[in-house]
Amino acid sequence: KGHSAMFIQMNKLFTKIKSTWNKNSEMTEDKLMSLLAKVDVLIIDDFGAEFTEKDKEGVTWKQTKTNEIVDSRIGKSTLFTTNFNIGELAGMYGERDFSRMMENAEMLEMHGDNYRLRNFKKGE
Questions:
Q1: pLDDT digits over 44-61, tens only?
Q2: Domain named IstB-like ATP-binding: which ranges (predicted)?
Q3: Cβ(78)–Cβ(42) under 8 Å?
Q4: What are phi and psi of 39, to 5 degrees?
Q5: Considering 8, 31, 60, 117, which has the largest number of Cβ atoms within 10 A of its Cβ?
Q6: What is the CATH number assigned to the segment(s) 5-109?
Q7: Higher confidence at residue 109 or residue 122?
Q8: With contact defined as beta carbons under 8 Å apart, do 16 and 7 qualify?
């Protein structure tokens, strides 16, 4: 109680950042980045999904923004959900940023059936 929190899907986060570039936007990129830095608990869903795009320039831009967010969150509670393993994430983000993400981290692996496919029936 009394703590601020934000939950956002990784690709949606980048969409929000890009929307601040519109001259009619009420939110600036600096304000959004400041909000991400200041919130007590930040939960980023589907971390690594931004690397599924083929746009090399976009990935470079996204890596830079991810680095800024990670750097601004040092010492704060930040949760990442992902479908990637540790080796894949280290390769995506590079050793420097990955080590910052994993500093004081605890990894929880989830196993089981895909919840999204619970109503899917094969071969019918």
A1: 999 888 776 555 555 678
A2: 2-120
A3: yes
A4: -60, 140
A5: 8
A6: 3.40.50.300
A7: 109
A8: no
